[in-house]
Amino acid sequence: MKAVVLLICTLCMGVSAIRNLSAETKPADTGRYGPFPTNYKEIVMKWLETQLIDAESARVEWNGDPKPADL
């Protein structure tokens, strides 16, 4: 019986915690960090070439322009 009550309480707490999560974050202050470089794809690809063993076989999908965010 105690296990059932504990399970129900745990589920209720989990549901309430999930409800409070927000998928959207506040945008970062672009005045603080400045604009994104226009050649960001080139910068990323050059960095990947130095990090990957077989950079030629890497597939990168760009899903639009970068967005500012505080991590």
How many strands, what sense, and barrel or not for the largest sheet? none
- Global shape: elongated
Which oligomeric state applies?
single chain
Structural class: mainly alpha
What's the N-to-C terminus distance?
Answer: 43 Å
Radius of gyration: 22 Å
Helix and strand sequence: HHH
Mean pLDDT: 79
Report the portion of residues in β strands.
under 5%
Helix content class: 40-55%
How many helix segments? 3
Total DSSP E strands = 0
Question: Which key features would you list for this structure?
Answer:
71 residues; 3 helices
Summary, kept brief:
The protein has 71 residues and is mostly helical. The protein has helices at 2-19, 30-33, 40-51.
Q: Care to describe what's here?
A:
It is a single chain. Helices cover 48% and strands 0% of the residues. It contains 3 helices and no strands. With 71 residues, it is mostly helical. The longest helix has 18 residues, at 2-19. It has a domain at 31-56. It has helices at 2-19, 30-33, 40-51. The model has no long low-confidence stretch (mean pLDDT 79). The protein is elongated, with a radius of gyration of 22 Å.
Please render the helix and strand layout as text.
Blueprint: H1 2-19, H2 30-33, H3 40-51
